[in-house]
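Final report, Chapter 2: Outcomes

The project's central promise was a pipeline that accepts a single protein chain and returns its three-dimensional structure in a standardized token representation, suitable for archiving and comparison. That pipeline is now operational. To close this chapter, we reproduce one record exactly as it appears in the project archive, with the input sequence first and the structure output second.
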Amino acid sequence: MSISTMKRLTVLTPKVDADALIRRLMKLKCVEISTSSLDEGGDLYRNDCDTARVEAEKRVANIAEAIPILDKYTVGKSPWRDKPINTSTGLFRKTGSYHAAWAVVDEVLEIRDTMTECYHEDNRMAARIAMLCPWLEYDLPLEINATDAAYLWLGTFPSAVRIESVQAALSDLNAGIEEVYRDKAGLYASVALHQGDEEAVNRVLAGMGFVKANFKDLTGTAKQVARAAERRMDAIDNELQACIDRLCELSPLLEDLQVLYDVEMTTLTAIKQKQKLAATESCVLLTGWIPVEKSEKVKHALHHLNCAYDLTDPAEDEEPPILLKNNGYASNFEWVVGMYSYPKYGTYDPTFIMSIYYFVIFGLMFADVGYGLLLILGAFLGVKFMKLSPGMKRMFTMFGYCGIACVILGAVFGGWFGDLPYAIMTTYMGYESAEAAKAAAPIFNGVTLTLNGEPLSLNPLENPIPFLIISLAMGLIHILGGMAVKFYLLCREGKIFSAIFDIGSYWILFGGIGLIFVDSTVGLAVTVMGVLMIVLTQGREKKNIFAKLVFGLKGLYDLISYASDLLSYSRILALGLAAGVMAQVFNLLGTLGGPTIPGFILLILVMLIGHGLNMAINILGAFVHTCRLQYLEFFSRFYEDGGTPFDPALPSEKYSTAESEKTKNKTNSYHKGVIS
């Protein structure tokens, strides 16, 4: 509804008090700290916190790794949204819970490393056993591969090679071969040879695809090594179970780790903010922005700190950040504006009026009671029970409101999962035709008007022309609304004549065109008046009479642009028909099985899969095209973009929230678990 007025905050404080200053401002949640500019060769330099930042980032990363590990073994946790932990970070540190939580983090990460090594070793042992399986019947120790006069080679041949062929090939050499094992993978054999025939034997065996086995560092027979590996795997299983048992013992302290995460993340944020400050040898200079309504709150906080501060209005060449102020309904649509661009500081915030148009246009594009109810349930229940960020909560809430529009307009235009009620009535309830079902339950077919004594159905699947007219009428209202905002802004700036000539003249022209269909004489007169106003005033800033006329005619040519913009709203009809036709097709497929048990099962499956797919596709389509109409047809009339969103420095509240003063007075100590 409006853009918050900003104040420039400047604070000078001793360097030793910089952390206290930053943390106090972060608690207020209403101060955006700017990066201070430094003059080359001046006395101000960048406040160096690089080392502290690296250390803080490492601490946060360690905690972030430990939390999901412990969370995995926590019993009784909610799969949905958990209530934030209400605590005092001051008491968390004073009672020793801070250091105890760090001990848990270190132990959890140590257990993680132990388990990782166990898994790796278990895989190595399993691979060793698999490698030794073909050699289990080989009786000699694996480390014996030579004597004083002979070599002993172990290896494999391709599966097509026969032991007899190898024996025949070695018959002329001082070598012998023995088959140890054979499977689909190949022939496993041991070869004994005289040391003087090594080269000749190797040449023969290589020609037959022989590959030596590598049993380096293995001692004992294959069976002994395999059994040792099995025993080691059993020991590894015991180690892993011990690790898991310890994690289960530590799991009740998960909340301590979550509080610790917020504490350390807040510290990291504070360090990042301190890096923005300019510094001298003994002082730091902080500059930033605060909303004017928070001025007293900030002054009160700074009054208790060792600092000097000043609040000033923005300079003409400054661009303060943008904080939008809207009611509980419209604030959920601010992210839609942000997808386009925030308004420029000092201009108009269109969120509230845009949210009304968005609500109606989305409802027209996806006018269906059934889908709307599912959208309402999914969105609002998601906000209540799911773990969502503030931005996601606003998005879900917005879609919940849009679901309400779908329900209302779905009842008007006869969308109930398409024509599902009539499909069920004709298939399962004995009605002979869809017409008979509609006669028995006309409520599911939408509103029917009477025009010249004849019924006129507003159901777009039966009669799309009325829906097209409604879509274009909505477009006309939308365009005129954008022009009205521009008219208001021009008047607010004192440009009354510009408002009348640049906006009002087109209104007169549009009104005249509309009146032609009611009273041609009056309508034609008003239309001519509008044309003359446009032609005579659109080039009023030009000095040359010829230029005035050219720009006046160009202004009249803009009527074609308005007409094309109006036609773009026919996409509302296209989206509405797409959703309805797809739903109708799925209803037809779902009732093909007839009034039988398999037919009922088919109906349920089509309802879940088909209508689920239809809903997903058309929610996306309605969202995209409704946004497009806002950005191109509405904002283009008046919107001045280019603003930067207000980004205050905030403490981390991913898992916990600061304990209220009332709670603090009732609690004398932090009562979370502490490791002994």
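Archive annotation: The CA atoms of residues 338 and 645 lie 8 Å apart.
This record, like all others produced under the grant, will remain available to the consortium after the project formally closes.
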